[in-house]
Amino acid sequence: MSKVLFTIQYEIIPEKRDEYLKVIRELKNLLKAEGLESYVVYEVKGKSVAFLELYTFTSMEAYEAFDDLNDERVNILIDKITSMSVEKSTRYNTLVQLPEE
């Protein structure tokens, strides 16, 4: 079974940094799903308002099922992050691990 990495990279409005960090802490505590191996947030070195969220899923099935997760509080926090993001700065990537031979 191939692992799946899903990344979201964005910049936030500089004045919202402290609020953003609080939201991310809460989100990290709430994000639990079957097949979600880890959820980590990185700050881009040298850019105090640029971040990357990294989700690691155990399989493609787990990744696809994650979209169906309907946790109201998680959705509220994700909407908050979106509202703090600089317009048109968000980039998404889905990476699928190559099978081992």
Task: Summarize the structure in words.
- There is one protein chain.
- By secondary structure, the chain is of the alpha+beta class.
- The chain has one domain (4-96): 2-Layer Sandwich (Alpha-Beta Plaits), CATH 3.30.70.
- It contains three helices and four strands; from the N terminus they run E-H-E-E-H-H-E.
- It has a four-stranded antiparallel beta sheet.
- Strand 2 (36-43) and strand 3 form a beta hairpin.
- The protein is globular.
- The relative contact order is 0.33.
Top keywords for this entry?
101 residues; Alpha-Beta Plaits; alpha+beta; globular
Briefly characterize the structure.
The protein is an alpha+beta fold and 101 residues long. It has helices at residues 17-30, 60-66, 72-84; strands at 4-11, 36-43, 50-57, 91-96.
Compute the separation of the termini in Å. Answer: 12 Å
Quick check: average pLDDT? 92
**H/I helix tally:** 3
What is the H-and-E element order?
Answer: EHEEHHE
In total, the number of domains comes to 1
Portion in helices: 25-40%
Radius of gyration, in Å, reads 14 Å
The CATH topology annotation reads as Alpha-Beta Plaits
User: What is the general shape?
Assistant: globular
CATH architecture type: 2-Layer Sandwich
Q: Class by helix and strand content?
A: alpha+beta
Largest sheet: 4 strands, antiparallel
